[in-house]
Design a protein that fits this description.
Layout (H helix, E strand, L loop, with lengths): L2 H47 L17 H38 L5 H45 L4 H19 L2 H18 L2 H36 L2
Helix pairs in contact: 1-3, 1-6, 2-3, 4-5
């Protein structure tokens, strides 16, 4: 191997290593985004069921097979987020009071009103900064929720996925016995009934999980291709 080949391989290896590190960060970011998406879906569904009540979140029916595993992080993060929501609501009430005082003081003499108005504006700006801070803290909690539950949620196999796997297994047997068509139709019919029986809430949660799984899978496959390319470069030595 010539000098320029060695230099070129080193450059390619460094480039691929950097790209792999970038993909790792993208995977983490996608899992965090998944936490925000999943939490918001569960939160919305809970509030619809309880007419806007801000109670602790319950494990969705579709996660019943991993209920014990997901219950602790869901309760932990929903409790922290509820505290932040209450704090934010209190700050928003303060903003409304400041606005009301500003409206009330419109008719005060100019000399008295200038100083008061400046102070109120400063107070209002400070409150808005506090609201943004609380929003950021809630976002972080949701992202951490995503990282905490990702492995258990992404590895869960939905009922219809299990049935599809069963179809594949029995299809192999059916090629030999000549009963593949009947087996496949029967199991696929069960899959359709299973999907039809799922509530709209369950389908919404499943769609959220499946989209994140597809995205992360695509990133992982891209990472593995680059890792193989690095291995090929190392193998030349």
């Amino acid at each position: 191997m010539g000098f320029f080949d060695i230099v070129g391989d080193a450059a390619n290896r460094a480039k691929l290593t950097g790209e792999i590190a970038l993909i790792d960060r993208q995977i983490i970011s996608r899992k965090k985004a998944f936490g925000v998406e999943l939490y918001d879906v569960i939160d919305k569904q809970e509030k619809q069921k309880k007419n806007g009540s801000g109670s602790m979140l319950q494990t969705p029916e579709i996660f019943k097979t991993i209920e014990h595993e997901i219950k602790e992080p869901l309760e932990k993060f929903s409790k922290a987020i509820r505290v932040l929501e209450l704090e934010k609501r209190g700050v928003e009430n303060e903003v409304e009071l400041v606005g009301a005082r500003q409206y009330r003081d419109v008719g005060t003499p100019a000399s008295a009103g200038v100083g008061k108005n400046v102070a109120e504006k400063a107070k209002e700006a400070q409150l808005f900064v506090q609201i943004k801070y609380l929003d950021r803290q809630m976002l972080i909690q949701k992202e951490q929720f995503g990282l905490a539950v990702w492995d258990m949620v992404s590895e869960q196999q939905w009922i219809h996925e299990a049935l599809i796997d069963e179809t594949k297994n029995k299809s192999g047997l059916g090629v030999i016995t000549g009963t593949v068509e009947g087996l496949t139709k029967g199991i696929r019919g069960t899959v359709v009934k299973t999907l039809g029986a799922a509530s709209s809430d369950e389908r919404e949660v499943a769609a959220c999980v499946n989209k994140a799984k597809e995205d992360v899978k695509s990133m992982m496959e891209n990472k593995q291709r680059k890792e193989r390319a690095v291995a090929d470069i190392v193998g030349k030595k």
